[in-house]
Each structure stands twice: as structure tokens, then as C-alpha cells.
Design goal:
By secondary structure, the protein is α/β, with parallel strands linked by helices. The chain has eight helices and seven strands. The longest helix has 28 residues. It comes from Pukyongia salina. This is Methyltransferase. InterPro entries: Methyltransf_11 (IPR013216), SAM-dependent_MTases_sf (IPR029063). One of its GO terms (biological process) is methylation.
């Protein structure tokens, strides 16, 4: 599994998939530097531009730690789950799948289904469109809607939602989706939800970008309304929370 990801793949993907933001930010800093240099001189202008650039630099450094230096994509935190040969694993992504190959290698004797609920009319992030063009889907991935998972009732031993469920921006749609996840999960099965949270740590890391995430209270409300209970919460760095639902 060590050869699947490249050393700086995570942070580089952030930059190239969100290049519109970084290009705009870079141009604003240059324009500001030129303007301030004319008004106050080069030294002060440089210091002001450095201070303005710090939040972006910090967010990229933290992202490198989270996506490239932690064990997030090694999935070692899955070792707390008892996954047996023959279990049915369901991995659901939002148009960009970085985990199915690792899950397949980690549990080669399990049966695996991979679904993609990305809908370009509902899930409008330009970064996802770019990611889909850059990375082909995992072989056998099936396109689904958030309202219907094409499985019978109670067939999945484990359902994985790794950094994908927050792309369902409307709360009612998110609730209906988790009810559908509950339908296909066995009574003794588990659902694994991995997310950034809209909390203090992520605000420090991503400033206003943290508004793209949902709060822990919001997730707990959705889980409860869909019929789940939180069995365990695992922290992979202070910025990533994994909810094990039963």
C-alpha cells in the first residue's frame, strides 16, 4: 500500500484542483505589494504582504501534514474494526476516490462495492470536476444518486464515507442519504464517516475555508435522525474526525 500515494500528492492536489483561488490570491498580493510599495516603500509593503500570505501558507502546511504525513490514507485507524474475509464493504465517494484501492489491498478477501454519488447539478465544487478529470474512477465504480443505493436491505457489513459526505450541502438531502445508508447496512454493521469539522482547529488551519465543513453538532443531528448511534470517535490529527456509527 505504501506505493499508492506520492509524498506530496495531497497538498499538490489541493493547489491544482483549487487553482482558481490560488491564482486570484497571488494576483491580489502582487497588486497590493505594488500599491503599498509606491505609498510606503518596499520593506513595509513586503512585510504586509508576508503577513497577508501567512494564512494560506499555514493552511497548506497543515494540509501537507494531514494528507501526506499522517496515517489518514494508510487507513491504519481501520485496524480498530474487525473486518473478516467475506464481509461486504461499501465505499462511497463524491466524485474523487482516494481510498478504494487501499481498502481493496488491506482487505483482499472481503467483497467490495464502490459507489460515486457526484451530481454536477447538485454538487457544484469546481475542485471535484478537476479531480475527476485527473483521476479515473476505481474499476467497477457505479454512479448513484444520494437518494438510492442499488443494494438490497441489510447487506453491508461496513460502509465507508471518507471525506465525501460533506459534499452533500443540503441538510435534508444529507439526512435522506444517511437513511439510505442505514437501510443497506446490516443490523450489526458499522458505518465509518471521516470528516473535517467546522471547529476551532479547522478555523485556525483554513480560516473561512472551514465553513465548507459542518459542525459536530450538525453531524450528530443527522446521525441521530437517520437512526445511528456514535460508537466511537477517532481523531487523525486535530483536524480530522472519524465517526464509527452503529
Amino acid at each position: 500500500m505504501a506505493g499508492i500515494r506520492k509524498p506530496y500528492q495531497g497538498v499538490w492536489n489541493i493547489i491544482r484542483f483549487n487553482r482558481h483561488f490560488y491564482i486570484f490570491y497571488f494576483l491580489v498580493v502582487i497588486l497590493l505589494f505594488v500599491t503599498l510599495r509606491l505609498l510606503w516603500g518596499g520593506s513595509l509593503a513586503a512585510w504586509i504582504c508576508v503577513l497577508i500570505s501567512l494564512p494560506v501558507a499555514i493552511s497548506l502546511l497543515i494540509s501537507h501534514w494531514v494528507y501526506d504525513r499522517s496515517d489518514l490514507y494508510l487507513l491504519s485507524w481501520l485496524d480498530t474494526l474487525v473486518i473478516k474475509p467475506g464481509d461486504t464493504l461499501v465505499n462511497i465517494n463524491a466524485g474523487f476516490d482516494e481510498t478504494s484501492e487501499t481498502i481493496r489491498q488491506k482487505y483482499p478477501q472481503a467483497r467490495m462495492e464502490v459507489f460515486d454519488f457526484y451530481n454536477e447539478t447538485r454538487h457544484t465544487e469546481p475542485s471535484i470536476r478537476r479531480a475527476r478529470r485527473a483521476y479515473p474512477p476505481y474499476p467497477g465504480t457505479r454512479i448513484i444518486s444520494t437518494s438510492k443505493i442499488p443494494l438490497d436491505d441489510h447487506v453491508a457489513d461496513f460502509v465507508f464515507l471518507i471525506l465525501s459526505a460533506h459534499e452533500i450541502r443540503k441538510e435534508q438531502e444529507r439526512l435522506e442519504f444517511f437513511r439510505e445508508v442505514r437501510r443497506v447496512t446490516k443490523p450489526m454493521g458499522r458505518v465509518v464517516v471521516v470528516e473535517h469539522l467546522r471547529d476551532g482547529a479547522n478555523f485556525l488551519a483554513y480560516t473561512i475555508g472551514a465553513f465548507h465543513f459542518f459542525s459536530k453538532n450538525n453531524w450528530m443531528l443527522v446521525f441521530r435522525e437517520a437512526g445511528f448511534k456514535i460508537e466511537k470517535v477517532i481523531k487523525t490529527t486535530p483536524f480530522i474526525s472519524t465517526f464509527i456509527l452503529k
